Amino acid sequence: MNGYSSFNVPSSSAFAPGPGATGVPGGIDVPLGQTNQPRLLVRNLNNQETTFHLSGVELAYANSLRRVMLADVPTIAIDQVLFLQNTTPIPDEMLAHRLGLVPLISRGVAKGLRYTRDCECDEGCYYCMVTLKLKVSFRGADGEKFMRVTSDMLEVVPSSNGPPAPNPYGPPPELSEDDRQIISNRDPELGSPVGKGQPGVPPILLAKMGQGQEIDLVCKAYKGIAKHHAKWSPLSTVAFEYDPHNKLRHTTHWFETDERAEWPLSSNAVFEPPLDPSLPFDYNAVPSTFYFTAESVNSIPVRSVVEQGLDLLIENLASVILAVQKETGVDEDEDENGDQGVTEPDFGEVNGYGNGAQVGDYGAGGYGANGGGGGQWGGQGSGMSPLRR
Ligand SMILES: [Zn+2]
Asked: What is the CB-side half-sphere exposure of residue 45 using CA atoms within 13 A?
């Protein structure tokens, strides 16, 4: 018994329904479940962190889940900054960059806000944007030489073009189904800086201000994903470990005198039996249990990030299946009448991100780089988010 799965069978049959997979030569000590389906064991979960074991899947699947949680789950972040005044020594660009990295509460943003490129408005509206403002000045106080400008001073500005108020005496306001869904999923705190007003959560320092200095700016926060910019990532950390005893020899431990002393076992080693040196090396063994750790920046609860990651993975794989079916004209569900039932894949909807040209444009966009008090939106003068172009 080597303690890890060796379901080294073709991937097409790895997940075939059947009465478990135990009994395969080499032994499977990993709990795969009765039907050899992927299995999740949550060891620790709070709003910010989770540790879970994922078994019954291949390494590529585990890594796909890690990447999708890190880079495909949408949040909102400040994307454009209009500088009305900035007399601090911090340049506009640096301040705009710091503002972009402030985590904003994004609960329910997947359904509670539209990507701005999908919205019919011209310059951002209630359904695709959150506006924040920062207006502070320091006139000098007793013994104080400077003032700290922090993320707690950012304030969400109520949208002027929000949904019409309900009419108790007449017909309900006319709204599209999409608009209604956004309104019903909208979190009342959406866009507020994470930790604002919470005791024990230190705010994020944005700048230090001397006597007589002033900052006055307006920020536009949009929905986005970390594939475009890391500021949209809902996680600060996501990692997984497998094979803590290095039975598969995927790692070579360089050491001077004592390998064990210089490479102590990880905390996950207790979940697998130790290496038995009397057994020959199993060339066919594959890893099957992955020990995940994910830590959120608190814009979205970490549980929601994992759930959305799994959903997105299903959507992405479905789009690949549909595309292959379209190319080959082969559909596994094809009925005997010859109806292939091929559905046109809609990549615009499924992928949720733009094409390469948009990504390339992003770097050139820049923020409010028009000098202090220029009163111009940063970017290429279009007044649009780079995500819209
Ligand atoms: Zn809009």
From this structure: 12
